[in-house]
Amino acid sequence: MTAVDYTVIVVYLAGMLALGWWGMRRTTSTSDFLVAGRRLGPVMYSGTMAAIVLGGASTIGGVGLGYQYGLSGAWMVVTIGLGLLALSVFFSARIARLKVYTVSQMLDLRYGGSSGLISGIVMWAYTLMLAVTSTIAYATIFDVIFGLDRVVAIVLGGTIVVCYSTLGGMWSITLTDMVQFVVKTVGVLLLLLPIAVVKAGGFTAMKSELPHGYFSPMGIGGQTVFTYVLIYSFGMLIGQDIWQRVFTARDDRVARLGGTTAGAYCLAYAVAGAVIGTAAKVLYPELGTPDDAFATIVKDALPVGVKGLVLAAALSAVMSTSSGALIACATVANNDIWARLRGRTLRTGGASHDEVGGNRVFILIMGVAVIGISVALNNVVEALTVAYNVLVGGLLMPILGGLLWKRGTGAGALSSVGVGGLTVIALMMWKGILANEPIYAGLLASLVAYVAVSLATRPTDAAILDVWRRRLAGEPAAPASEPASPATANA
């Protein structure tokens, strides 16, 4: 690292804080703070959506999978891109028309308020762990940049993200994400990718140095790919962090086309990460852990100045997902858990200063919690797997069932969340976090519980379904169509 590299990094970090302050000046309501006023156009929407889904696990973890498995290591990030494409093409327009703030509010609308609290708890656990995965990644990056101790690195990176997220909420995060998207594109796709391939001697030399399996599209294993689809593709369909970005779209067209563009970008990013990891395997065949591949190739293979920019790109990837997950976690904690316990609900219109201030407080609290948990954990991919297993096993069936099956009921949704979530957690404790059985059994148990209990209970009230249909269609909503208050919702 030279003075030029350090200057690039410091200017980048200072810029993030400055954008956070600027975003605060644009935030005057809860809508501004949580969903950027629901007025993002296609360029900003595409950039911020790509930024949030491609974080530390996709960058550092994706390169690590490429180091371990070769080109087939791209599958984890490919399934993320496929999930985002499916969300954008089939569901995003309807989701945006609901005009809510959280996934649990959507469940309240669909089922009449019967499952909001427990679904909020599951979603909170997911977003918390998602924020943790990105925060853990600061240790690797700041160790390369400044040689910092792991704990100090996590605290430093986490504090910067907490500061700009707390200041301006989604507006600050949107502004920083756009910068991060540009830096990440230049640093990873346009600089690190070609330099890594050239340093490794080109594809011909890479093929001669590595086993044939490194260039097989299914070298990672068909079962692993299938599990990735279940966890990450379906996870993209239902995550609060992703839905909260959909809510920022100006209209249906922006949500659909902007999300499709972001999904296509994810596919390119997936291939780039796997190729970089494969090149790192040629250059450094004996690394202690695959997750060290990214930092090592950046540290040893890049020239002065470029090294600083690529490390800034890595920070961009980590910070964008970390901030997006953090605001999602705080939104769920405040509006789906704390507000319900107090017998209150979040309005979808304007908001008082106290409501914006309350959301700021929760971002600060959740940020401190994320930093603390990140210090205790160490494996990026394992933490991400825990997050997505709990999310998909607990909430996929109630959410997709609510969108696609009219006969689904609130009791069925509640049973599905509880049975699926508990099954996943129990099997992760028994079989191990990275085992395939937890998500397989969790999804099956969740589906059986949802269908069986829905058919065994009374259909959802026609008035509730009528309100739901009108909101999905984007028709003018009467006051009764607001998300059900936890104080008055049917249990």
Automatic annotation (TrEMBL):
The chain crosses the membrane at residues 6-24, 45-67, 73-96, 117-139, 151-173, 185-205, 225-243, 264-284, 309-333, 361-380, 386-405, 412-433, 439-457. It is a multi-pass membrane protein. CDD domains: SLC5sbd_u3. Keywords: Membrane, Transmembrane, Transmembrane helix, Transport. It is found in: Membrane. Its main location: membrane. Belongs to the sodium:solute symporter (SSF) (TC 2.A.21) family. PANTHER family: SODIUM-SOLUTE SYMPORTER-RELATED, SODIUM/PROLINE SYMPORTER-RELATED. This is Solute:Na+ symporter, SSS family protein. It comes from Streptomyces hygroscopicus.
